[in-house]
Fold:
Amino acid sequence: MIGAIIGDIVGSRFEWNNHRSKDFELFTPACTPTDDSIMTLAIAKALISSKSDHTDLGEKAVYWMRRIGQRYPYCGYGGRFNEWMFSDDPQPYHSFGNGAAMRVSACGFIARSLDEAKQLSKSVTEVTHDHPEGIKGAEATAVAIYLARTGKTIDEIRQAIQENYYMLDFTLDGIRDTYRFNETCQETVPQAVEAFLESTGFEDAIRNAISVGGDSDTLAAITGGIAEAYYGVPDDIRRPAEKYLDPELLSILREFEDQIGE
Structure:
């Protein structure tokens, strides 16, 4: 899960000022955790506070996204999600925004089977993003993470995504000059997965994700979760990233990692 947070922090300064190159400094004073990190940690808290069979996970997701999210009101939420978070009666709003995929990495790390990864992602997604494309984007992300952490090869992960979710009939070099900012799952998740698939290590995956532009923090958060599951995260990248998290957020990260034995 720290991989998604790192991707978000690194990508935060490029969201509105895309950098179409792999040559940049990872961490600067302009970097910050955005809604991607806040909601990733909220979902992690929902998972570790839910029942062992996760039958109350949807309820917990609503509770923790709102409780934690309201403490960070200026971190970049989308308009409809912000309304949902502060609503007196929060209901799904048929969204297929890429927020469904950027927050779901913990599901892929905690799942004990592929089917459970799918069910967990659906439970935490459908409380807001109940459009089929929203659920699909979140599931594809959780599945890629589960497959990566359970020993599947890059070729096997590519095949699984192409057979069940998205055709990855492009390369990063092929889209770098033309890909533009897009907040939908269907125009963010495939590019994020491809950034991982073309990588040679965790840092390279993050650099790949930034280099194509678009919704940089979210794209890199999705890539970062998958890359962490496959490669792990080097300490010299993890340590500076953790300094961007306040004590409350860092404690949730620690609690989740203790729960899954990392």
In short: DSSP finds 15 helices and no strands in the chain.
